[in-house]
Amino acid sequence: MPSPRTTAVHPAWLPPGAFAALGGRRVVVAGDGALTSTVAAEVAAATAAHGGSWARLEVGAGTADADLVLTLAEDDPSNDADEGFRFMRDGGSAVVQAPTERGLLYGFFHVVRLGEDAFAGPDTDETHAPAAELRMIDHWDNVDVHPTMGQVERGYSGGSLFYASGRVRDDLSRLDAYARLLAAAGINRIAINNVNVHAREARLLTEDLAGVARIAAAFRPWGIRVHLSVSFASPTLLGGLSSNDPLDPEVAHWWVRAAARVWDLVPDFGGLVVKADSEGQPGPFAYGRTHADGANMLARAVAPYGGLVHWRAFVYDHRQDWRDRSTDRARAAYDHFAPLDGTFDENVVLQVKYGPLDFQAREPVSPVLAAMPATRLALELQVTQEYTGQQQHAVYLGPQWSAILRFRLAGGPEAGDDGTVAGLVAGSGGFAAVSNAGTDELWTGHPFAQANLYAYGRLAWDPLLDPSAILDEWVALTFPDAPVELGEALHAVLDTSWETYEMYTAPLGVGFMVRPGHHYGPDVDGYEYTPWGTYHFADRDGIGVDRTQATGTGYTGQYPAPWSDVYESLGTCPDELLLFFHHVPYSHVLRSGKTVIQHVYDTHSEGVERVEAMIAAWEPVAGLVDPAVAERVAERLAEQLRSAIEWRDQVRTYFFRKSGVPDEKGRRIF
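Request: output the structure for the sequence above.
Response:
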């Protein structure tokens, strides 16, 4: 049984004060099992801290005097995978009833989120259930410290929660606190190592399985199943075989034996995550096989145990010739995978990045999500802020993710709800996202980045939640005793922070413009002449990538109607994506009435002004939070302002020197 609040780490959105409403009441927990014991331990700690009382009873025992009853349903025939719950309020008393222990756990955290509102207000009888079965967090942690990428690839919050000194940590006690945070946000699966599987990390599948089992044991009391990223080359790397050909029976049998060993030690193991034929990772292309061949071979090995294979669709040529304007990295995922629709086994989940490139602050939604109706799809997001300020900048990504999830990709604006991105993935695959947590004392480096991890979990549970309301939840849970002024200031800082970041970085959907390698800070030409395929094609006359069917790479043709036509035409392409789809002169007039070049000048200046306003909004309330949090926020906001100014000055100067067009407002350009 976990022991809540015993680990000396920052409580994030679960401080003791968040449990005051239920902790001061009479609570009954009815039922048996490991997760029910987790709920009971939480209730015991809350009532001890806040003066209430609690009892553990059998299902169906007397509960008449309780203010809150948390109970498993008697003789419910629901599937074991059912994670929903029923919430009832009658005369100021509340009942959570669930068919499974996972549902009971999520129902308990629902009551925590509601606070006093769980017991106040009119009588109600509500049913809650997650939109998607799979709600996964992917860690890009390395067992060994990688010489270039460090302990956590694209991690900005310290070291790994799982590994130290080249092995699974001896002390995994902090994982209890981490699992508790994830469960409270609705996350039910976790991949515990980098998708770029190096030689040392590959051994988690074999000789390090005992360590994996210890990690799984830490997450099990919170209803979270563990997954591993594996190398497609494991048979040669670990098994001494001469081939990794997915159609070779000896290779397939090696994976069958490997799966048997894993599930023998970890019976509730979730499955495998695979990055293949991408950025140097091995895959089936080396043997003339398709990605369906590779994924299905693995899927059949894990199928007897109910295991899944999350196969990433992030596949492209990273050794392109920058001179060749017909090659388009954006096309790659669709070109590779759309023809394979319907050929993947049922327990394969194709994991598709939200956009066609790489987690930029602004990209169009990937057309792959509409092109594969006969394939299980998972939408992949990036909670770690690789291209959105690396947790040095306060950037609340809830609004970005909400816009993606609500986007009606299939059938366009007039389509029904099942045409949304959320509808396309929730029913079959679900959601995955790269974690932003590490050994930093505040979990996420920037304290405000905790809101992104929380928001991801909540949107994966219910994609239609309002991101502003989610931020309200996070504020109320994280700072439960703070005055209203603190919440107002946090909204002032975070509500439009994604838009603000976009303003002072790469304009109009052009993307990247970051320093190669570490991806922090401006470098407008950083990737322009490299093999990675991320170009803006700026010259003296204009900027942008022609991805039209008429004169460009043809990428717009990968979209279903009406989006193929919307993006094809300059007259209908949204301005925020203009330079992603079109090469235009600097004098092109946007719907705002401004030219492209003046938009660049104005938004980069306004972005800096907005960061200054964020600082001004925060400073008066900084004293209302823990001094360690206040100090970290002040340091990060100062760095955000410095970086925003650097972005402003470099981007404005670059395009002035390219275009020769002055800022009509006469501001200084270097």
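The radius of gyration is 25 Å.
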